[in-house]
Mitochondrial small ribosomal subunit Rsm22 (Rohdeia mirabilis), 347 residues
Amino acid sequence: MTETISFSERDWRQLETLRAEYLTGAVSDWSDASTLDLYHQSFGQRIAWKWRAVLAEPAVARLAPAAGPVVDLGCGSGVASLECHAAGAVPADADWHLLDRSAVARAYATDRLAEIGVRAHSDGRAPQGEIGTLIVSHVLSELDEKGLDELVALASRASRVLVVEPGSRPAASELVALRERLRAECDDLVPVAPCPHSGACGLRAPNVAANEGWCHHFAPPAPEAFTSGFWRRFSKRLGIDLRDLPMSFLVLARPDQAPAAASDDGLVPARILGRPRVEKGRVRFELCWEEGVIEADLLKRTDPVLFRGLREPEAEPRAYRVELGARTGDATRVTRIEPATGSDTPQ
C-alpha cells in the first residue's frame, strides 16, 4: 500500500506539524478529515505495526475471540480496530462501537471498517450491558480523571481489554497505573500479557522505582519500512528511525478465557523489559517475574542459540520461562531459559 502513496509538499509540511504537536504534548481534535487521512497512511501505520506485534504475542494469539460488542475507545482513524479484525482477535460478526470526541474521526474510522465489510456504530455511544472486547490505543495521555473513570467503567463490563500505548517512560507509567487500578476494581480480569503474573506490578516496589527500568517493549516494523521509497522519505523528512518502534501494552481477559497455567517443571514465567545489554560472554536485562523486577543475566554458554537471539534488537516478544539461580555480583543468574508458548499465563 505504501509504495503507491504520493504526498505533496503541503502534505509533508502537515505531517511535520503533526509531529511537532505530538512532541510538545498537544492533542489533535481531528477536525479535518484530510489531515486524519494523512495521519492514517503514515503515523497510523506505525501504530498498526505495534498492534500486529501485540496480537501476535503467543499468550494473546491463543485467546479465542470474546463474544459480545467491540468498543474502540478513542478510535482515531480506526487503525487499532482494523488490526484486531485482521488478526481474528474479535468475532467476525461483532457489533462494533466507535468512541471518539471527534465526529470526524468516528466517521473516518466507520468508512475504513466499512471497506472490510464491518458495519460500525459511529454515534459515539457505548453499548449497554456486557462488552466483548475493549480496544484502547494511544489514548491514556489524553484522558482527564473523568475520562479515566469512563475507561475503567467500560473495562469492568468487558471480557477482554487490549491497550497499546507509546513506549516512553511517562506512557508506560500511566499504563502501569491503569493495570493496578483494574486489578483493584475489576476482580474478573487477569493480565495475559505482557505480565507474567497477576500480582502487584514489581515496578512499583520502592527498591525499583528509582532505577532506570520501565515496562516497555519493541515491535518489529513491517518489511516495507525498509523497502519502500515512501518510508525512506518519511524517515528522512521527519527524523524518525524506523528501526525503533517502542511500545507499552496491556492485555487482560476473564480468568476462564485466559490460557491455562503451565505445569510445574521448575521454570517460571518471566518477561524481559526493554532491550538486553550485551557484554562479553553474557547478556544482561531487567526481568519481570512473580516476585518482582530484578536485574538478571544469562551466560553465553548456558544457551548459545538463545544468547545470539537476544542480541538481535528485533527479537520480540521477550516472554520466557526461566529458572533462576543465585545472585552473582549485581545480577541474578538465569540458569535455564526457553521461549514462552502462550500457555504460561497466571490465573
User: Anything to note?
Assistant: The domain at 268-339 is CATH 2.40.50.140 (OB fold (Dihydrolipoamide Acetyltransferase, E2P)). Residues 41 and 284 are 37 Å apart (CA to CA). The longest strand covers residues 268-279. The chain has a mean pLDDT of 90.
